[in-house]
């Protein structure tokens, strides 16, 4: 997750790009504690795990979807991508969709 | 009395005869009515029944022939998701010939047969034969591949590229140059291929019909370019730069390109990363495609680095497991599909307003704090 914060630094002033985190936490207090710690610079929303499984095919967290301007999912990546140069990888997906 | 009885019997017999012929006629009428409703399976069953009776055979065979003609050549997108059934084409001709044979004077059957035969003839025409000079120029490139002078190869690539604006000569040419050890030239040619590929797709955009399909073609062109450049850099032993390009190709092809996965495996092997190499070889083998000798080579390489504790037959077992996994992942994947409408709330419980996200490139990350 910290890699999303650093990847976001490149796009925070870009009006054509948005980041949205969606939590499937059931425990609101625990989630709030986590958010207080992480201080994400982009919006965070909540949904139920059941809806995420049914609608998004979620079978693991984290799971990232890259959605183009026409609202079509173009890439999806599973699992934590905190290894290697993940910040650059996140930027690469976004830049593909910005073309 | 007996006379009256005989008349009554005759009446009954006539009625019975009329009745005996009516099931076939009823079947024929029912079949035609069912087809008018586009209830194909039931229509065909009824018409096949009617085709057995000589009195209705010609009409029934004609109706069947018309249904199969529609199925074989005309139903593509007639209703959402419908496709032509090429397997029905021979059947269409056979039924219409049977109709004409059953009643030589039946002009409607003759017309239907002429139309079906016209479709069949049109289909035998190669829709886009490559121009002969393109074939010749491709052949010239390949004939120079193994031992022609490098300058001649480059000239052949340029000549072919000038004759038709598709990116194939750049990609094939870059591969030839890599095989001949001309890595920098190969990289330059591949890079030009990427730009040519984009232009070619944009010039012919309407041919793709769906934006997702043209996007896919753009990505394929870029993936091929990145893979060729990465492979040339690998041959130059610039491993870090090669990794960048080969991994870019893997993202663009969504890990679905046999040759690219093989290249990533070779890179990992050269870097003594056994597990990563095995992973890429297995990725490659669980995909369709790749020339047979290359598949054979990848199989040998994978077999040469079994995972710890693997018994005999591990490779086949692993590959079948991966194929199943890939299949279920593909079914679930949302790639190239519209983002589903997901009910979202704010962390404080209020309704989350998605208006500010509309029309933007969106990174959507699902997580749990546990």
Please identify the top-level CATH class of the largest domain in chain B.
Mainly Alpha
Question: How much helical structure, as a percent, in the residues of chain A?
Answer: 40-55%
Secondary structure class of chain B reads mainly alpha
Mean pLDDT of chain B: 90
Q: What proportion of the residues of chain B is helical, as a percent range?
A: 55-70%
Oligomer: heterodimer
Instruction: Determine the number of helices of chain B (DSSP H or I, runs of at least 4 residues).
Output: 15
Terminal residue distance of chain B:
100 Å
Q: Describe the strand arrangement of the main beta sheet of chain A, using strand numbers.
A: 1-2
Output the radius of gyration of chain A: 14 Å
Average pLDDT metric of chain A: 87
Could you say how many structural domains of chain B there are in total? 3
Gross geometry of chain B: extended
Q: Residue ranges of chain B: pLDDT <50 for 5 or more in a row? A: 11-16
Rounded to the nearest angstrom, the radius of gyration of chain B is 32 Å
The CATH topology of the largest domain in chain B is given as Serine Threonine Protein Phosphatase 5, Tetratricopeptide repeat
Which percent range describes the beta-strand content of chain B? under 5%
Number of strands of chain A: 4
Q: In the CATH hierarchy, what is the architecture of the largest domain in chain B at level 2?
A: Alpha Horseshoe
Greatest interface and its participating residue counts: A-B, 59 and 40 residues
